[in-house]
């Protein structure tokens, strides 16, 4: 794929934190876990649209700031018993640079 | 290779242990389960509603065979284990199946006690323990008329009620002169008997069975006094005995049950035992609440976490006969050292008795209305000091000025469409359906599935009542000391005690030292740990932003639409034309949608974009205004009235007091939000008596009030004391805040905190001159590190990443 875009450095995001990438199609939240894994999801909670970038990162999940739904960072799916998903976007590291693709992974319509 | 765990008994305790173990570490063992009954695991206590025709067997399955497959647990259903070979670590089943184990769990439950009288082996003489017994009873009810139930305890009455619902004429035979003598006192037992008689049950009290008569099938029961009654079915429900034969034969030390220690190990450390077959600290339990606690600890130990200890369970009882409410717990008889509080209304069929010793509840028995049962039980378990509301105790929680609960406290009578959880719009019907369909057992499960009680928590009591109504047994009972969240087995108090030793200086260190079960904790424990650490070490820079909720991280309140609000301080509710001008200018400059005069005597600006926050803060700072912490678990506002300065009734300068209080305490992080007020006279225009700390000025000085709350559940303050000088008002408030900061649980406001520890305790400390002085000094030491305006720091550029996007991608890249 050719649409990788450099969005910043790993150190731009605090550990267990997130930053927002604004795009023409909506905001994307980019997360960094305790082990420096990086994930990207549409910044919109499947529940009532809470900004996931403002949540608390726990393991490989984020707790939404509005009503505490837990969303899997890798897949964007809500942790049962809640049900729903936020689209996930491919990310990869090139050195310390975070590369993001704006083509959402298949499987979740909520971009 | 994986170690092997073999479980004997696929009943409630054994399988609960397996479930807990799978939750902690699904891959640790190869698990094999033997069950004498040819089914998966079902909810035994629901056999009573099945018998009464209110539920079906399918509805009470907890783990069907598919569950075992999905979790890779080998199930030998219908195979009873006949011996344990401890030397070769093997078990042998009746069909010849052998399994070897590294660790073994014995959870064989108990057996019904069959009274040794002639004829006890006739057809139609059965016990009430398993699905087979229920099938036999239903079969008998379809063909026959007369049933005799021997035993007037919980089980016997539930059997009798079920058989009556199935159309039989039922006589309950009881050895004593009172029903359920182990759970009821005289008056309650009499009321119970009366209402069961009204429904059509017959009773023979103080009747000792001599023999059961019949050729092939039972025909009659004969008593010691020579009388006889007809019977086509005899159900023995006179007690249970722990099923210990296997263990005993294998040489494991048994008394009444299999003797286990606090980690549920038998005398052979490779062998564990849980459930009704186990005897812990001399007690063999016969209810499910203890089993669930045992299961948790046992699973924890099996998973080699090794931190949990089972320390026994306080149990309570309910009878699962639809339409009859009774509840009992603890010592409800009492002795010469206890007081009895009794309420009885024969006409309404209501009775309750509470046994109290040294202002703590020792036990309770209730008949007719049991809605407050779980409340009394909580007070009893937590050892709450009840002196403050003793005179209203008997009338229940609804009479404590508890407007949040008030009228809808009668769960049983509520319609299915009644809204229970106002935050999430969950009705009673939805909760009942979720409990039944999804087989929910615990409050946490109900919260996860329905969202009821998961937000503000004010409906927790109602949800618990619905649970015990729906489930029958007392499932909601949490262990004596509730763990702070699912990530840990430690209570808030334990965790704080550990942190207060002073060695642990980061969230990670606490999690490691206290064996946290999840890698990064959760949204419940991380903010709590962060607070406890910040409170203990104000001087060290250990505050972890990523463990704070968004509002405290961004120093503004997030709104439903993702925008933020900004509320600057107006000290003691006072403002000036300059401040108002600055607020007005800022509101215009940043296109604020809403300007609101808040309930806290200041002005709130709503609808700001996150990126704009540092800008507007800068403008407000320039006009001399600072953060109002309207977003924080921190000092919020100090409301005042105009007081002596203007008001014709004012006795002291309440406005000045308020301003001083706010200057003293702003910036302080607390377990929860903290609000104060100062009124100039007892007319109390500043509403000081519903604040966390309230000052009411009087002619002779100041009344100091504590523990008020105006929110979800209104609570009027308690009077702490009267003082004469402003200095004292300030010193008491600093000491009180520090005590609260150091001892309350995270997210516990002063009102529930004071109810938990008792006003007497707080008074003892604060009225002691030395202790008060030390607390006040610790408070001001902490404040010396806290009183920096967070807005000013951020307006000058700190934490910039919080307020700016990482990247703005203007032109959408073309995608194929
Ligand atoms: C702004 C304000 C309403 C207003 O426009 O007037 C307000 C707004 C909120 N209140 Fe409040 N409360 C406001 C005064 C009150 C008062 C009145 C008072 O302080 O005199 C009360 C009752 C008094 C009390 O707390 O005892 C009050 C009881 C609550 C409660 C229930 C607390 C409780 O212990 O029962 C909550 C929920 C919570 O804290 O968990 C709450 C929660 C909230 C939150 C923070 C909800 C949230 O998490 O988003 C609201 C934030 C809106 C925002 O973005 O600013 N608010 N809230 C008031 C701010 C006062 C201020 O200047 O700081
Ligand atoms: C009708 C009824 C109503 C009840 N109501 C309530 C209530 O309202 N509230 C409450 O708290 N409690 C209630 N109880 C009690 C509760 O059901 C028990 O406390 C609980 O089921 C005990 O769990 P356990 O795992 O120890 O035993 P069990 O659930 O009995 O499980 C033991 C299992 O081990 C199997 N087993 C035994 N020996 C062997 C062997 N050698 N090999 C293989 N398998 C074996 C048995 O077949 C059984 O399935 C009720 C009980 C009954 C019968
Ligand atoms: S509380 Fe007293 S002093 Fe304050 S305004 Fe009311 S009457 Fe006046
Ligand atoms: S919007 Fe995310 S939990 Fe409600």
Model regions low in confidence, pLDDT < 50 over at least 5 residues of chain B: 401-409, 473-480
Count of DSSP-assigned helices of chain A:
0
From the 3D structure, determine the CATH topology of chain A: Rieske Iron-sulfur Protein
The total count of helices of chain B amounts to 26
Q: What is the chain-wise order of helices and strands of chain A?
A: EEEEEEEEEE
Total DSSP E strands of chain B:
39
Give the averaged pLDDT of chain A, no decimals: 93
Number of strands of chain A: 10
Measure the end-to-end span of chain A: 19 Å
Q: What is the global morphology of chain B?
A: elongated
Q: What do we call the CATH homologous superfamily of chain A?
A: Rieske [2Fe-2S] iron-sulphur domain
Structure description:
The complex is a heterodimer of chains A (111) and B (816). By secondary structure, chain A is mostly beta strands. Chain A has one domain: Rieske [2Fe-2S] iron-sulphur domain (Rieske Iron-sulfur Protein, 3-layer Sandwich), CATH 2.102.10. Chain A is 0% helix and 41% strand. The model of chain A has no long low-confidence stretch (mean pLDDT 93). With 816 residues, chain B is an alpha/beta fold. In chain B, 31% of the residues lie in helices and 21% in strands. In chain B, the strands form 11 sheets. Chain B has a 5-stranded parallel beta sheet with strand order 5-2-1-9-21. Residues 401-409 and 473-480 of chain B have low confidence and may be disordered. At the A-B interface, strand 1, strand 2 and strand 5 of A face helix 17 and strand 39 of B. Strand 2 (17-23) of chain A pairs parallel with strand 39 (807-808) of chain B. The site of flavin-adenine dinucleotide has 35 residues of chain B, from helix 1, strand 2, helix 2 and helix 8.
